[in-house]
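Quick check before the chapter quiz. The format below is the same one you will see on the exam, so make sure you can read both the input and the output lines.
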Amino acid sequence: AAFYHLVVHALMKTCLFLCAGAIYYQTGEKKVNRLQNIGFSMPLTAGCFTVAAFSMVGLPLTGGFISKYLLAVESMGASYPYFIALIVLSGLLNAAYYFPIIWQFYFVNVEQPAGKRIFQRDRIPFTMQLPIIAAAAGIIVLGTAGVMAYDYLQQIVLHFLS
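Here is the expected output.
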């Protein structure tokens, strides 16, 4: 369960940082509170960011949900039920951090001054989009086919430990 979480966490953080880099690349903006409505002008990047953020929180159909569930099951099996409280706390703290950003992306509508150019660049290169899409797809695959992926990763770990 820990190795599965390590793989999923690496995908989540990779996706989040790549999305942040893509947003900065296209907009030149570093402040989240200035990214209102970016979900509609950069839908692919904002959508992938949202998938990764939902996974960090541990929402169903994401790899983060499966990894947190597996960690909780293993914690109970190892007689450490208080770890479940830490897993829940982690999800709540992630929600408190990421949900306001997602809210800015989709639900805060601010009129731009006339003639002001929003983006530094018109498009994000495909070579920049591809790893973002791959990471978000991996998060969803590990969330929907989690048991199969877990069994496969467990066999790999057991092979190296024996």
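If your answer matched, good. Residues 2-27 form the longest helix (26 residues).
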